[in-house]
Amino acid sequence: MKEIYLDNNATTKVDERVFEEMRPYFCELYGNPSSMHFFGGQVQKKVDEARSRVAALLGALPDEIVFTACGTESDNAAIRSALEVFPEKRHIITSRIEHPAVLTQCRNLTKRGYRVTELNVDSEGRLDLEELKRAIDNDTALVTLMYANNETGVIFPIEEAAKIAKEHGALFHTDAVQAVGKIPLNMAESSIDMLSLSGHKLHAPKGIGVLYVRRGTPFRPLLVGGHQERGRRAGTENTASLIALGKACELAHVHMEEERVRVREMRDRLQRELTALIPNTRINGGGADRLPNTLSIAMEFVEGEGILLLLSEKGICASSGSACTSGSLEPSHVLRAMGVPFTCAHGSIRFSLSRFTTEEEIDTVIRELPPIIKRLRDMSPFGREFLAKQ
Amino acid sequence: MWDYTDKVKEHFLNPRNVGEIVDADAVGEVGSLACGDALKLFLKLDESKERIVDAKFQTFGCGSAIASSSALTEMVKGKTLEEALKITNQEIADFLGGLPEEKMHCSVMGQEALEVAIAKYRGVEAPVHGHDHDHDHVEGGGQLVCKCFGLTDVFLKKVIQSNKLTTAEQVTHFTKAGGACGGCIPKIKELISEVLGEEKKAAQEKPVKLTNMRKMQLIQEVLENEVRPQLWADGGDLELIDIDGATVQVAFRKACAGCASSGYTAKFVEQKLRELVSNDIVVQEVQG
């Protein structure tokens, strides 16, 4: 069965051009870029090129790019660094809907005597900057907020938040794993101090990430050892993967306009037709500024796992904010923070598109999903009560 | 992705007995929208009101909740109410070729709905159920332990005991208790110790409590229910001749009579009786 892959916020297909770019760096050009001989030196040149390509996508300088092993490492490194830079400060500000890579780290720090403020979001998943202004003080070492949410695609006003942090002498970090490659970023005209990105979310392989660290921002490394990455991240470079990431960033740059226009149109059509065909739906974050590729749609009286399993029978890959799919017993912390009613939270499905998504694939989902929802509602005691009232 | 058995997948994709029975004799409803799963079970009885002739269900929940409901309705059909009440959540899971441990609470929900339906039909107080529509209110006594999912100590102890659970994590997998805020996990650990403590105590007290009359009764029950069916399977049988204190005299019949390994068979009978009745029992083979 050919897959219809609409789970690109989870991971993406490696672009074949990216794969071709990295292929020689396993069996042929396997030298260590730190070596003094020609064989390592030629790899060093490609590492430099990759660094420049990543920097170009972000509007950054090449020496502001630190390669890491994943988005989670970048997030951990940024938070740890900020606390070491300001040993006298004991306060961190984040939000309730961060990715666990940030949230778990922050919550663990409360056990070590740090104060952590988790900012709330409204019913559309939006941040209230006034709450940030009230929470921040001279004790705040770091403000860390995600650029765009992985479940709803809702975009936070990151530049405004970064300015507020700067005014109060706190460092500002953003987990931009979902935003990079989908919407334009320009570090040259930004107040962001540190930014995390992950290769496998933008058609590069898994196991490679970046932490952007602005020139002049004090930084303490998480991994210490060799001199790699100018002493900011020890460990021999994952050369093949970072070369792949460089190529992926170059392609993301080229395709950005397409992702923003063509992908958005497909997402909007999917949203429009599904809400017209399926009664009692709700778009999570539909009233907010969102990533162009993400649709989180809640369907009342049904449970997400059943929807995903039946979609999967049709070859359609999506994900859900429901409890049952995650091994957790509660609906996602993001939907709960938004106050999405329980009737909807359990039946929330996320479709996340990519530049490889086709109109035909969208047609298939529009055709297959409504009967699946009807079937599960017919089976559900609540759905029947509801349908009887109609 | 969950590692569901083919049977779970098959019952999820083609659930048996979905729907309602308008003139049902018994209806059991557990769970709620807030909990994330709910099951409404309908039972139709025969004219003598003894045997279940039809069963249907409506379920809101994940794939394994739907499969467990489908399995349950297949299992109860044709059973008397007494037989149906003996179905355990483990048997529902076994019917499906097993469930991932994190999903065992789906089988517990099925067993619970069955109990509630039969209790309501008989007009007795419904057993204290775990899933409660209104979390502030507990029916049938018991103390609320897990506030997130509305679960009482009576219900949790029952599940701990019948499934022989030993860790708080297992209790979460089987009942959801402690799976949300986690505030009740210390209390769950206490309940596990209580159940283990009670079982240990019961085991120690077993020989002391037995009167001679009770011991003889128990020996007869064990021979009838545990021993003879196994002998029948091999074409054999036995007869109880006499009980004198701790000495039990039996005579082997059919294939067992004169069988070369009757010594082993006597040891098997002795082992069963020691395990289930009293540690000091001695089995003697006699001709009779």
Automatic annotation (TrEMBL), chain A:
Provide the catalytic activity annotation: (sulfur carrier)-H + L-cysteine = (sulfur carrier)-SH + L-alanine
Cofactor dependence is on:
pyridoxal 5'-phosphate
Q: What would you give as a GO molecular function for this chain, any one?
A: metal ion binding
Q: Per the database record, which ranges form the Aminotransferase class V domain?
A: 4-364
Write out the entry's keywords from A to Z. Iron, Iron-sulfur, Metal-binding, Pyridoxal phosphate, Transferase
UniProt cross-references to InterPro entries, sorted A to Z: Aminotrans_V_dom, Aminotrans_V_PyrdxlP_BS, Cys_deSase_NifS_bac/arc, Cysteine_dSase, PyrdxlP-dep_Trfase, PyrdxlP-dep_Trfase_major, PyrdxlP-dep_Trfase_small
Question: Superkingdom of the source?
Answer: Bacteria
SUPFAM superfamilies the UniProt entry points to? PLP-dependent transferases (SSF53383)
PROSITE patterns per record? AA_TRANSFER_CLASS_5 (PS00595)
Q: One GO BP annotation here?
A: amino acid metabolic process
UniProt-listed Enzyme Commission number(s)? 2.8.1.7
Quaternary form? Homodimer.
Q: What does this protein do?
A: Catalyzes the removal of elemental sulfur atoms from cysteine to produce alanine. Seems to participate in the biosynthesis of the nitrogenase metalloclusters by providing the inorganic sulfur required for the Fe-S core formation.
Q: Which family does it belong to?
A: Belongs to the class-V pyridoxal-phosphate-dependent aminotransferase family. NifS/IscS subfamily.
Q: What is this protein called?
A: Cysteine desulfurase
What is the native source organism of this protein?
Geomonas limicola
UniProtKB/TrEMBL annotation, chain B:
Q: What does the record list as GO biological process?
A: iron-sulfur cluster assembly
Using the record, list the residue span of the signal peptide; answer none if the entry has no such feature: none
**Keyword vocabulary terms for this entry:** 2Fe-2S, Iron, Iron-sulfur, Metal-binding, Nitrogen fixation
Check the record and name the Pfam families matching this protein: Fer2_BFD (PF04324), NifU (PF01106), NifU_N (PF01592)
Q: Which CDD domains match?
A: IscU_like
Q: How is the cofactor bound?
A: Binds 1 [2Fe-2S] cluster per subunit.
Q: Which residues form the NIF system FeS cluster assembly NifU N-terminal domain?
A: 4-123
Please list the cofactors this protein needs.
[2Fe-2S] cluster; Fe cation
Q: Which residues form the BFD-like [2Fe-2S]-binding domain?
A: 144-194
Query: Does the keyword Transmembrane helix belong to this entry?
Result: no
- Name the positions where [2Fe-2S] cluster binds: 146, 148, 181, 184
What InterPro entries does this protein map onto? BFD-like_2Fe2S-bd_dom (IPR007419), BFD-like_2Fe2S-bd_dom_sf (IPR041854), FSCA_dom_sf (IPR034904), N_fixation_NifU (IPR016217), NIF_FeS_clus_asmbl_NifU (IPR010238), NIF_FeS_clus_asmbl_NifU_C (IPR001075), NIF_FeS_clus_asmbl_NifU_N (IPR002871)
GO MF terms, alphabetically ordered = 2 iron, 2 sulfur cluster binding; iron ion binding
Q: Which residues bind Fe cation?
A: 35, 62, 106
- Is the Metal-binding keyword given for this protein? yes
Give all residue intervals belonging to the NIF system FeS cluster assembly NifU C-terminal domain. 219-283
NCBIfam families in alphabetical order:
NifU_proper
**What is its biological role?**
May be involved in the formation or repair of [Fe-S] clusters present in iron-sulfur proteins.
Protein family membership: Belongs to the NifU family.
Query: What PANTHER family would the database entry show?
Result: IRON-SULFUR CLUSTER ASSEMBLY ENZYME NIFU HOMOLOG
- Record-given protein name: Nitrogen fixation protein NifU
Gene name of the record: nifU
